[in-house]
Amino acid sequence: MRKLITIASTMLIVGLAWFFTELFNFSTVPVRDGDIYAESEGEPPIPMYKSHKLPDSIDFAGEQVPLQYFDVAESLDRELQVNTYWHSQTIHILKKMPRYFSQIEPILKEEGVPEDFKYLAIAESALNERAVSPSSAVGLWQFMKATAREYGLEVTAEVDERYHIEKSTRAACKYLKSAYKKYGSWTMVAAAYNAGRTGMSRQIVRQKEKDYYNLLLNPETSRYVFRIVAMKLVLNNPKKYGFYIEDEDKYPIIPTYTIEVKSAVKNFADFAKSHDENYKILKYFNPWLRQSYLNNTAKKTYQIVLPKRGFREGVSK
Q1: In Å, how far are 90, 120, 127, 164, 245 from 131, measured between CA atoms?
Q2: How far from chain centre, in Å, is Cα 293?
Q3: Under a CB-based contact definition with an 8 Å cutoff, are residues 117 and 175 in contact?
Q4: In sequence order, what are the residues at sequence separation of 6 or more whose Cβ sits closer than 8 angstroms to the Cβ of residue 171?
Q5: pLDDT reported for residue 47
Q6: Residue 174 DSSP class
Q7: Chunked in runs of 10, what are the mean pLDDT values of the chain (317 residues)?
Q8: What pLDDT is stored for residue 313 in this prediction?
Q9: CA-CA to 268 of 20 to 30 Å: which in 3, 243, 248, 253?
Q10: How far is 311 from 211, CA to CA, in rounded Å?
Q11: Helix H or strand E segment including 36
Q12: DSSP letters along 75-104, please?
């Protein structure tokens, strides 16, 4: 009997030890940068991704997104998950935002365009002023050549102002305000920026409907506004969606100065050297200059931007 009691006690102790070991392991699943990891025996940790919930309400340019409609909620949910888990792209945008938004936001305000349209620039180009689409749309706002000229941008072999952040932003504002006069809705304006006003107007007539959220549109345009709203959600509160970008990790706003040019420039490499700079940096800050020279037969006045000395070391002198 004594022997049986000893065996039972030993088994009880072993069982309790196993139970508390497993309990401890379960309660200490490692958390890394906001992602919960599950561990399987003999296998490396596996990230467990969660579905981010939609807010109770959200607006675009002051116009409410009707989340009470299941199709609207599901469309926004799709874009929210896509942009949340497209880690490399979203992190890169978060790092670039201070530099580009510091240039875009004042222009939108001055032109009377809602600030939310800065997220449209993200949807168009991911804040890349050198972006070129397969259809040859160019720049931060992805202007086609004819539309760019229609809204006052110079597009030639030597100068292409679609690559000019300030001038292309002002041209985009002209387009957006013109579209608002036509549709009376900033949401419809955003959709028309993607589909074109002719395409949007055709669907309005065909479907007898003027509300973006009630229109059946092509796959790209049907996702477009939701993509913009999703980016607004993530970029306004990145930590909520698992992005932890420290201020020192963001790309700094580089102080610059301008040089006025009214005549021809024979060689921009020499021009850069004469201002204690190199050709690469000159073109980096002025991608709208498309050649290594500028004939400027029309004798126009151009503002060439260069960084203040010491920018590469992060020090403004």
Answers
A1: 17, 14, 9, 12, 24
A2: 33
A3: no
A4: 141, 143, 148, 151, 152, 153, 161
A5: 59
A6: H
A7: 48 49 41 48 64 94 98 97 90 96 98 98 96 95 97 97 98 98 98 96 97 97 98 95 92 95 97 96 97 96 94 60
A8: 72
A9: 253
A10: 48
A11: strand 35-38
A12: HHHHHHHHHHH-HHHHHHHHHHHHHHHHHH
Q: What is the dihedral of CA 71, 75, 77, 82, to 10 degrees?
A: 160
* Size of the chain in residues: 317
Selection from 197, 217, 244, 226 nearest residue 123 by Cα: 226
Of the candidates 188, 231, 276, 257, the one whose C-alpha atom is nearest the C-alpha of residue 58 is 231
Which pair of structure tokens corresponds to residue 172?
């985009």
Phi-psi region of 278 (alpha: psi -120 to 50; beta: other; left: phi over 0): beta
Contact 97, 127 (CB under 8 A): yes
Return all residues near 150 (Cβ < 8 A) that are at least 6 apart: none
Fold of 59-249: Lysozyme (1.10.530)
CA atoms of 4 and 146, how far apart (whole Å): 94
Identify the residue whose tokens are 């003999």. 42
Q: What's this model's pTM, rounded to 2 decimal places?
A: 0.83
Residue type, 91: I
